[in-house]
Amino acid sequence: MRSISVVFAILAANMWVVSATVQWKDSISRFSTDLLRKKYRNQQTQKFSTIMNRLKPALSKDPTDNPLFVELPMDHFSPDNKDTISCRYFVQEAYYKPGGPVIFHDIGEASIGPYAKGLVDEEEFSVAMAKKFNGLLILFEHRFYGQSAPSTATSRDLGKASKRQLSEFFKYHTIEQALEDVVYFAKNFSYDLEEYPKQTLTPDKTPWVWIGVSYSGARGAWMAKRNPGLFKATLASSAPVQLQVNFWEYFTAIEDALAISNKNCSADLSAAARWLSDAWENRDSSLVDQLIDAVYQEDWEEQLEQYDPDSEEIWDIRKDYLQDAAWTPFSDFQYYGVNGGTLGQFCDIMETTYSEKGDPAGVFATKSLARAVTAYAKAVAAISPYSYTSSRQRSQRKTKRQTTNNESIDDKLDDYSWLWQVCTEFGAFQVANTSRPENLLPSFINVQNSIDSCIGTFGESEQVSKAGPNVDPINEKYQGWYVQLSNTLWTNGQFDPWKALSVDSEEEDAPTNDTATTNIPQCGKTFPKGTQLRYVIKDGYHGSEFSEDVVKDSPGDVEGIDPTNTIRSLTATRTRTKTALTGTPVVDAINAQNLWFSAMSSWLPCTTLQFNLADSTPQTTTSAPFTSRTPYQTDSPDEAAQTSGSSSNSGDKQNTATPSLVIPSLMIPFFVSILAFLAGIRVLV
Ligand SMILES: *[C@@H]1O[C@H](CO)[C@@H](O)[C@H](O)[C@H]1NC(C)=O
Ligand SMILES: *[C@@H]1O[C@H](CO)[C@@H](O)[C@H](O)[C@H]1NC(C)=O
Ligand SMILES: *[C@@H]1O[C@H](CO)[C@@H](O)[C@H](O)[C@H]1NC(C)=O
Ligand SMILES: *[C@@H]1O[C@H](CO)[C@@H](O)[C@H](O)[C@H]1NC(C)=O
Ligand SMILES: *[C@@H]1O[C@H](CO)[C@@H](O)[C@H](O)[C@H]1NC(C)=O
Hints:
- With about 675 residues, the chain is α/β, with parallel strands linked by helices.
- The protein is built from 27 helices and 10 strands.
- Bound molecules: 2-acetamido-2-deoxy-beta-D-glucopyranose (5 copies).
């Protein structure tokens, strides 16, 4: 296997090179994680304490400052293994009243720290649920994300860990283990409420409700199938339940959106993909090197002179940059679409490079290739987080406020952790399909390349193999997009690319023998076979009903709802006055929210629905795994020793390390403006 680390060692002295794995990982995480609501993402430091003043005294315990930890078995499926893993959660108790449900908000593939801010925001969907239904709201951190992983020498410095250390560390990071975590958590859950006598909050005595988006939405669906009755109601939002390795269909939603009002950009992005594919396949470096020089890497062409410019290793490095360039326009489409997000900005910059109005046919069709590539490079430079411009902004931000980000054990834990899941079980590689004329990605963004990156990061093992992610067991066990669930609301965004893997998929091979309804079945009644409660949010994106504010005092308050009624007409009754900092508000998200409130009103008080918990023996109320404030998990003594001695062997470790975490141009002087960097290509303009 070709190893980029060799090149890395050769070149590192002279230039800062980005590693294949980091670029690729970043693409993955840009697409799959970060479901933080728009406003928290944009205003990281602001605290949304809209309710702090009028809350019950109990909330003097600010939930956002009170992380709790639970000890769970590391390996649920072999009783001999006594290792444990400590998972973090937060509880918002301010709205709880006896008889209210436990609302379990599963965050999935991310640290929950940043989400905790939302626990004191009444416009947050989950908080609104707790308020309407007198619920106890739990924010749960998935194993191996944030602080919910063993703190070891490996996890504290993932960049230095060897492949073997990484695959050993992540061994129990599987979909099934993580689902069982929740079963264990729920069945043993207890919580002291100062205001009330001891409540039994386990799912046999208190209805539990699952809410989740994306991977955590799929987890909700899998849980409903796996442990029926454990949760009395499930909201599976934007849930990609049909796992597949090659997920080129991701881009069809983007193609469709571009075709509506950006035909010029659509044509140009396809042309750029074809140009990049050709340049790669013919090993034609001319314009490619100018692009890299202009966007990412100072004096790239001069530096190349010292090496054989046509060697495969140099082409691997070129590929890293080109991958980033090719991903850049689409990086936040799934949250904001074309006009609210970077794709719209990208298009505007590219299309207006040579004239204010642009040409309806686009730049690739009307200008020389060099000029078209210049327009493309200009847009990448303005938007890529790895370009000179961005690194300059980043470094300025850094010096302004020295942020100590110790939210996770290692800053990169969430990225590695999700990459592990993608490489082992989840798949969904967002790749090119060059046989389609509308294709938007260059041919080197393909499944094989993705699998190589997996192996390049984790090595080959039982879980990471040349055959790629093993998606079949989960699809077989949970029936993919054929799964039929009662007491579950499925929601999807009309333009969300992940919809293609959901029960609302319109792909060719998607189910056709099923029916969507917005009629909530009456208490005790089930759906006709093949019919499920589903709602596609008009103009919506990934998890829109979670990222939009809940309108205060909206219809759907518990008192006003007759649970036996079905929802007849769903219309947005008000338009939003507030606009998120980025993106256009998705008005129809309110209807999804209200449909869910109605479904909860129908299902929660309902006693005739089947509620067949396998194990319904009364739980002890003082269960051992819960402590009110478990300190952050500490090292076992031998690991601590390893760490303290690490200075002596770190050199040794570095040799085996994956070449990662070097972000290009971070170390580059930032005094030169992007226009100066564009000079190389600008000459051609
Ligand atoms: C927690 O729940 C599991 C069942 O999922 C059970 O086997 C275990 O004994 C419980 N632990 C405690 C301390 O109650
Ligand atoms: C060309 O693209 C720009 C930017 O995306 C867009 O605003 C404009 O409407 C397009 N023009 C035509 C004629 O399609
Ligand atoms: C995070 O950093 C702060 C300040 O440096 C420190 O007080 C705190 O204990 C750290 N938290 C963890 C979980 O390491
Ligand atoms: C590419 O798209 C075509 C449909 O245009 C489809 O038939 C084919 O299976 C896709 N290729 C791959 C590798 O999935
Ligand atoms: C729809 O078709 C699939 C595949 O043939 C089958 O497994 C499933 O049970 C069918 N569903 C219904 C509701 O008939």
